[in-house]
Amino acid sequence: MSRSLLQSNKPHLPSVAKPDFGRSSQLRISQLSFRRRLKYFYWRLARMQGSSRTIARGFACGVFAGMLPLFGLQTILGVLLAVPLRGNKILAMTGTWISNPLTYVPIYTFNFHVGQWLLNKHDLMSINFDSWQQIKESGAEISLIFLVGCLAVGLVSGIFSYFISLRLITKFRAAYHLQRQRRNWHSHHQKD
Predict the structure, then answer these.
(1) At what angle do helices 104-119 and 132-191 cross, to 10 degrees?
(2) In terms of C-beta density within 10 A (0-12 exposed, 13-18 middle, 19 or more buried), how is residue 15 classed?
(3) Cα separation of 82 and 49, whole Å?
(4) Confidence of residue 171 (pLDDT cuts 50, 70, 90)
(5) DSSP category for residue 125
(6) Are residues 158 and 62 in contact, defined by beta-carbon separation less than 8 angstroms?
(7) What is the rounded average pLDDT of the residues 13-24?
(8) Across residues 142-148, what is the average pLDDT?
(9) pLDDT band at 168 (very low <50, low <70, confident <90, very high)
(10) Rounded-to-integer distance, Cα 184 and Cα 180, Å
């Protein structure tokens, strides 16, 4: 048979529209991916070893370390703080993610203003930039203001994150155990 004869006798099937992977479907895929990640994090947190207080202490250590301007050392500091406080080291590492390239500027600007308020130093605009000595002295003053602000905000954030995470972890674990009990009850009664 010739090729033309085969092509002319080929059954005509309806054409199928190609899937549209436009902006709306990509958004749905990313939302689904985000939900999946949240669900994964939820189950990991519910199943994590250690008491709820241990996990919350670890997270609080990480948040405290994340508020300090020690770029690259925040994770190490968070873990080092979690060791004597008997906190979860994995959550200490996770807590430092509060400061990242997207949040550096707002966090550290806020910390600086808190330091100014705590030390009552609002006269930094009167610096004479022609005087090297005054610039050097004001640099030390600015560093002190920044450090005090970071320590204060870090301490408050750490304490706040401890209580919030303790409450959330307790709820997650209670829901997880309730769901396991229901699943066990249903599987036990289906066997009978």
Answers:
(1) 120
(2) exposed
(3) 15
(4) confident
(5) G
(6) no
(7) 53
(8) 88
(9) confident
(10) 6
| Range in 25-34, 161-170, 174-183 with the lowest mean pLDDT | 25-34
Structure tokens at 176: 């997880």
Structure tokens at 55: 């996990």
Which of these, 132, 133, 1, 161, lies nearest to 65 by C-alpha position? 161
What one-character-per-residue DSSP string does 53-110 give? HHHHHHHHHHHHHHTSS-TTTHHHHHHHHHTTTT--HHHHHHHGGGSSTTTHHHHHHH
| Residue pair 69/108 in contact by the 8 Å Cβ criterion | yes
The pLDDT tens digits for 38-92 are 665 655 655 567 788 998 999 999 999 999 988 888 889 999 999 999 998 888 8
**Rounded CA gap, 46 and 52, in Å?**
9
Q: How far apart are the first and last CA of the chain?
A: 66
Give the CA dihedral 74, 76, 79, 80, nearest 10 degrees: -110
Residue with the two structure tokens 């808190």: 114
All structural domains of the chain with their residue ranges: 52-191
Whole-prediction pTM value?
Answer: 0.67
Q: Quick count: other Cβ atoms within 10 Å of Cβ 8?
A: 8
